[in-house]
Amino acid sequence: MKSFPTLLAIACAFLTSNLLAKTDTFAQGRQLLSASEFQVLSPRQRVAPENQMLTERLEQLLPQLMAEAGLDMWLVVNREYAEDPVYFTLVPQPTFAARRTTMLLFSRKADGSLEKLSVNRYPLGAPYESAWSGGDLAAQWQALAAEIVKRSPKQIGINVSEHWPVADGLTSGLHQQLLKVLPAEYQPRLVSAEKLVIRWFEQRTASELQLYPQVVGLARGVIAEAFSNKVITPGVTTTDDVVWYIRERFEQLDLPVWFTPSVSLQRAGTSCQADSPFCGSSGIIQRGDALHTDVGICYLKLCTDTQEMAYVLKNGESDVPAGLKQALATGNRWQDLLTNEFRAGRTGNEVLAATHKAAAKAKINHSTYTHALGFVGHAPGPTIGMWDNQGPTAVQGDWPVYANTAYAIEGNIKQVVPEWQNQLIQIKLEQSAYFDGKQVIYLAGRQTQWHLIR
């Protein structure tokens, strides 16, 4: 794998070139053939890099984010089978549950460094120091209270949030128990850790960005396999057959999907309305069909979200009809209009409004619904449109864009296809990318050419 600086230099070279030449070639286009092009680490081999990235995040990133959020201390308290959503992003592997009741305490010291303590019946080990271990739950709560009082923090972050699910992991029962054991003067110091949790989820490190192209490449590689004659026999294979190929292929690779893949088809004579949110149906795949899939996996703690298009050649055809090529090119233009509007500090709603303005000027019929990526597929961060709401999104849409954050550049365009008697086709695209503070860089390239089934 190339080093992160090398990957960044290559991506920057792509982006500084013309985004749209007269031949409709687009920056960062990349065709993949198979997931076999990429190494997949065994579960055992994944532990070391995952734990190394975790240690780097805890030592280098978390102190910065806590300072940014104005927190002196952060508590993550959860129970087995009712884990806080942020818990698994904070603990070393292999970890399968918050055994019994697990308490994590992060405290900023005067020199800016961070204490990382576990108050837990079963010590976690490095990078955590065990402040208490034992078996009595009442003693465990008293030990947590003692550690808090010992440090006398002014602002103590706890995971309660009205609007962000990943930041609302402290259960009501545990919250009440925390209030019972804390001295009265400490209770007003408890504040929502919402901003910290969101920033922890969305911020990517250099080490993660070195690995992320491999993760996305695997997802795109399986799509390339699925959209090929290796899997599809026109007139025989169904869209559901392709769905199951994708699912089973990821299982073979020991790569968990975070949602069930989908596959749909569009064809001449099957109407796609201008006001339909989504066009497509299921069934037997025929020659002349346009296919679409939506796939998401997680690997090395990083998640992907990808949508691509394929075409099944008719007998006598050697290439995709010109109208379909032009429609995909319009989809790529829409991607460029969207990504050109990314600015550090601009809110998701502002990016969406600017994209709508640019698309209207270009006369592109589009729908934009882009979201953050990272430890989860639908990650916290700025919402840039929703498929069912192309106007402002309250709260999530007001979150600003930060540098070094990852996104699923997701949406669709509709365009007339002359070869289909001027019927509309919907080009649904989604590619995993990151924003370095100046430009959006696709993590494993993007689709600029149709997958072909012959």
Automatic annotation (TrEMBL):
<dbReference type="Pfam" id="PF00557">
    <property type="entry name" value="Peptidase_M24"/>
</dbReference>
<feature type="domain" description="Peptidase M24">
    <location>
        <begin position="219"/>
        <end position="381"/>
    </location>
</feature>
<dbReference type="InterPro" id="IPR036005">
    <property type="entry name" value="Creatinase/aminopeptidase-like"/>
</dbReference>
<feature type="signal peptide">
    <location>
        <begin position="1"/>
        <end position="21"/>
    </location>
</feature>
<protein>
    <submittedName>
        <fullName>M24 family metallopeptidase</fullName>
    </submittedName>
</protein>
<keyword id="KW-0732">Signal</keyword>
<dbReference type="InterPro" id="IPR000994">
    <property type="entry name" value="Pept_M24"/>
</dbReference>
